[in-house]
């Protein structure tokens, strides 16, 4: 084998981080036989609990999401960055178990979290009706012990003024036969001096119980902490070597915010850690791509503690040596030929039901019935996909004949209800069909009337939204080729850091998602307007 060929073969077997680029935080990793799954948080977006699948830890494919129906979760009225936090996926006795938190608030020490459990014989479902668990804290997970018992863990939230809001990790037994929690909860672990202890996962290995938690908050001070005990209920001793993984104090690293991890054991006995990271555009700057998922190799000697080389996240690590299993590349262009949205698409605050997302009435078109305004949290009509690279674009062709200024359809670079850029077709007061541009920065809207473009007739119009590092640009095609809207917009407002707002020490707004590119239709008068999208092309440049 030539040196060049050997390098290619080695690279193919390497895990390149992040393995799930873009908005994919709080990974829960699971192996069932030869199959690996990663479940991640989705917050106010359907389908809830996004899942990816691999057979070699190197190549991953999206399977879509699990929580696809209001039967499983109702996100109407869900606040920005509320909703589905930190799901946990496990397998026991021939069934998948999924625990997820629906967090309703995060102000004044109140989270109002409600935890749910659903089960299925297959990752594709069908999933059971949800079991309502406790609401004492979020980041819930399950542990299936060797004696056949099952236990629920979560962080314990303490709302009382003057108390530590992150009061530690609690545990309570779950009766699988009766499908309910039994006995009293017990405080398992109060964390280290780093604080903000959350994201628990429990493992049984080498005669010990191993508790893996996230500490330091989900931003620059994030870390993975490991503690162990001979007894399930403790006491738990913290690794004297310090955190298993962190980026703290290393602004030179490309992968920041390293924390919130979960472990997986391969068929060959190797250990790996899936964890959260962020990639700021500047040192400790805004992370437009949101919080992403990476994987690190773990050394775990018999009788010893697990460790990640250097204790920091690496951009590339050796794979487990499993047979390589690449997946077919996702088509660059979605022609909307299927009867349902593809796995890369998400919808805001309501599932993609036929009453507003219609892939059947007009073949090879996505018909989106208009919804609420940008601040509406009950029935918006936004179909979007995650931004996965610093340079990328979403291009579409839309047919839309608005009646008045209450009807808008176009493309958006979007973060949340307060932060977005939108190029859309609408109707001016004098009856002209026009293209207009509108931006929102922390809820402060900026219009660009001088950039309005006439779009005569009723025919199709090409639209494109483009991320170019810290800049967002928009383009249009009225039949004579692509032309750019002559303004450069700030992409960094579409980030977790920009979305967060602290007033008098309390979070008035938070940012836990990441930037998206989407197809957005508004029918502010409720007059039945819809837009037809002929295709959607997503490219990373």
How would you describe the overall organization of this protein?
- The protein is mainly β and 541 residues long.
- The chain contains two helices and 42 strands.
- Strand 30 (407-416) and strand 31 (419-427) form a beta hairpin.
- The two termini are 32 Å apart.
- The relative contact order is 0.13.
- Residues 1-10 have low confidence and may be disordered.
Distance between the termini: 32 Å
Class of secondary structure makeup: mainly beta
Q: Radius of gyration from the CA trace?
A: 24 Å
Please tally the β strands and state the result: 42
Output the number of helix runs.
Answer: 2
Helix content: under 10%
Label the overall shape.
globular
Q: Average the pLDDT over all residues and give the rounded result.
A: 95
Uncertain regions spanning at least 5 consecutive residues: 1-10
| Proportion of residues in extended strands | over 45%
Largest sheet: 9 strands, antiparallel
Family: Belongs to the glycosyl hydrolase 43 family.
Protein name: Glycoside hydrolase family 43 protein
GO molecular function: hydrolase activity
Domain Beta-xylosidase C-terminal Concanavalin A-like: 333-539
Comma- or semicolon-separated keywords:
541 residues; disordered N terminus; hydrolase activity; nine-stranded antiparallel beta sheet; 2 helices; Glycoside hydrolase family 43 protein; mainly beta; Glyco_hydro_beta-prop_sf; hydrolase; glycosidase
TL;DR of this structure?
The protein is 3% helix and 47% strand.
Q: Which SSEs are present, and which pair or pack?
A:
Blueprint: H1 3-12, E1 14-16, E2 28-32, E3 35-40, E4 45-46, E5 48-54, E6 61-67, E7 83-92, E8 95-103, E9 113-120, E10 131-132, E11 141-144, E12 150-157, E13 166-175, E14 180-189, E15 198-205, E16 208-215, E17 223-229, E18 237-238, E19 245-246, E20 256-265, E21 271-278, E22 291-298, E23 316-318, E24 333-334, E25 346-348, E26 357-358, E27 366-369, E28 382-386, E29 391-399, E30 407-416, E31 419-427, E32 433-441, E33 444-447, E34 453-454, E35 461-468, E36 471-477, E37 482-484, E38 489-490, H2 496-499, E39 501-503, E40 506-509, E41 516-523, E42 530-540
Antiparallel strand pairs: 1-23, 2-3, 3-5, 4-25, 5-6, 7-8, 8-9, 9-10, 11-12, 12-13, 13-14, 15-16, 16-17, 17-18, 17-19, 20-21, 21-22, 24-42, 25-28, 26-27, 27-42, 28-41, 29-35, 29-42, 30-31, 30-41, 31-32, 32-33, 32-34, 35-36, 36-37, 36-38, 39-40
Family: Belongs to the glycosyl hydrolase 43 family.
Domain Beta-xylosidase C-terminal Concanavalin A-like: 333-539
Keywords: Glycosidase, Hydrolase
